[in-house]
Amino acid sequence: MNKRYSFSLKTLRGLVCPCLLVLGGCTNVAGDVARIIELPSASPSGSKALFSIASNFFVSAGYDCGAEVRPDQFRCSKNLRDLYIHQTKAVVEIYPANDEDDSYTLVTNRWDEGLIPGELVSGTFSNADVEAFCQFLLEEEIGECRTGSERAGVRFRFNTADWGYAA
Questions:
Q1: Which of 74, 95, 144, 146 has the most CB atoms lying inside 10 A of its own CB?
Q2: Would the keyword Signal be found if you checked this record's keyword annotation (predicted)?
């Protein structure tokens, strides 16, 4: 009887570890390149107009755009995959880039949650809806999207002396 009890504990321990791994799941995030939306200097009402245009565009593309806690931010999400064991969601966010001008940061990420390990999920992401939104802004002469390196006047400088390297 003692031996039988010992066998069942070994069996139980052998099943608990795989069950925890299966039920634990994974979360993986991959992002597209961040963009800066530059509005014309004569643009009326800034963020309210931009967020309204963005909401109309992304809702028509199948996104769920809810009200954010902060009025100076915009956020939408869209389910790309909704399986029993794995869900994938695209998230689009727009927020002011700085206080100096009418520019906004546009970022998009892909969230994978579920039982598919991160090694099997692509680490790159490019959101075609964001690219279409940027094209729409340009065609309608509402604004222009640029990546950080494309933005006029942006230069990246690193002081290598701070890192202990001689120039």
A1: 74
A2: yes
Helix (H) or strand (E) holding 129: helix 128-139
CA distance 54 to 35: 14
- How many angstroms from the chain centroid is the CA of residue 139? 25
CA distance 43 to 50: 10
Q: What's the pLDDT at 12?
A: 52
Residue with tokens 């390297």: 165
Residue with tokens 């949650």: 113
CATH number of the domain where residue 124 is located: 3.30.310
Distance CA 117, CA 126 (A): 20
Query: Which has more pLDDT, 125 or 89?
Result: 89
pLDDT tens track for 31-66:
889 999 998 865 556 778 899 999 999 999 999 997
Number of domains in the chain: 1
The reported pTM is: 0.70
